[in-house]
């Protein structure tokens, strides 16, 4: 779908909306009890995540000067190393309160971060 879209015109909006959609999807998914509906939510959640990573990665690479592109790319790769920290934290919450509570908490924290970043970095919304 992303390839069919070609050049994304409002990359900043896509980034903010996909992050917000991911947060909302996590909150909705945390409340699901029916497997078919949960799978549908996960498909949408996976799509928003893929769209986010594709657009944000391409945007960063497009605005970084050529001589810094490798360094910036390596920083992006290093940030993936932080995922186990979140897994440990929310695994602990899941152990204490259950998986649904941990997922809802993660979604709410993500939603707060998206709203905060949206206000803090307002220029991102209009970034093309």
Question: How are the SSEs placed, and which strands pair?
Answer:
Layout: H1 2-5, H2 11-30, H3 35-63, H4 69-79, H5 83-97, H6 99-120
Helix pairs in contact: 2-3, 2-6, 5-6
Description:
- The chain has helices spanning 2-5, 11-30, 35-63, 69-79, 83-97, 99-120.
- It is mostly helical and 128 residues long.
- The chain is built from 6 helices and no strands.
- Helices cover 79% and strands 0% of the residues.
- Structural class category: mainly alpha
Which stretches are low in confidence, meaning pLDDT under 50 for 5 or more residues running?
none
Question: Strand count, sense and closure of the main sheet?
Answer: none
Q: Report the average pLDDT across residues.
A: 89
The geometry reads as: globular
SSE pattern = HHHHHH
Please report the total strand number as a whole number.
0
Into which percentage range does the β-strand content fall?
under 5%
The assembly state of the depicted protein chains is single chain
Helix fraction bin: over 70%
**What gap, in angstroms, lies between the N and C termini?**
19 Å
Whole-number radius of gyration? 16 Å
Number of helices: 6
Structure characteristics:
single chain; 128 residues; mainly alpha; 6 helices; globular
Short structural summary:
The protein is mostly helical and 128 residues long. 79% of the residues lie in helices and 0% in strands.
């Amino acid at each position: 779908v992303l390839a069919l879209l070609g050049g994304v015109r409002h990359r900043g909006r896509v980034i903010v909306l996909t992050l917000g959609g991911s947060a909302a999807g996590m909150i909705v998914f945390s409340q699901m009890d029916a497997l078919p509906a949960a799978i549908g939510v996960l498909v949408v959640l996976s799509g928003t995540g893929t769209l986010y990573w594709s657009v944000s990665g391409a945007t960063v690479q497009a605005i970084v000067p050529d001589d810094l592109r490798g360094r910036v790319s390596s920083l992006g790769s290093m940030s993936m190393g932080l995922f186990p920290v979140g897994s440990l934290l929310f695994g602990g919450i899941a152990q204490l309160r259950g998986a649904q509570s941990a997922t809802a908490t993660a979604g709410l924290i993500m939603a707060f971060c998206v709203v905060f970043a949206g206000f803090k970095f307002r220029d991102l919304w209009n970034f093309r």
